[in-house]
Amino acid sequence: MTTKELYNRITIGCCAGGQFEVEIEFRNKTYRCKSNNTLAYDCLRNNDGELVYYSSEKQALLALWSECKRANGLK
Fold it and tell me: Domain-by-domain residue ranges, the chain?
């Protein structure tokens, strides 16, 4: 999956207290989960181009994608 496709299938809510909501579209259904992965959140919200933990935006998106699939028992 390309970065653009991931951006189209993932919605990230605002971060409050170190937790935020992730919504993914998987096989034409919507699934949600709560995430504490602020490293991925910061990587995607960082506008100055500096990547700290993840080496690319795609890597951060895949981490959130996998976390949400795991939380909803999807394979």
Answer: 3-71
